[in-house]
Amino acid sequence: MKSKKAIIVIFIALNFVVLMGQIYPEGAPPFARTVNIVFLVLSMVYFIAQFRAK
To answer: 11, 18, 23, 31: which has the highest count of C-beta atoms within 10 A?
Structure first.
């Protein structure tokens, strides 16, 4: 259970960075594009794993 909570916390942090980059693109850090891609890939992997687990 703790690992699921850790994954959710990581997703929330990445989602916050992605959201801030969308709201205020001028203030986005230089690594924002990488964070967007990593977030999308990790989300997809997580959701596929959850879908297969049930």
So the answer is: 18
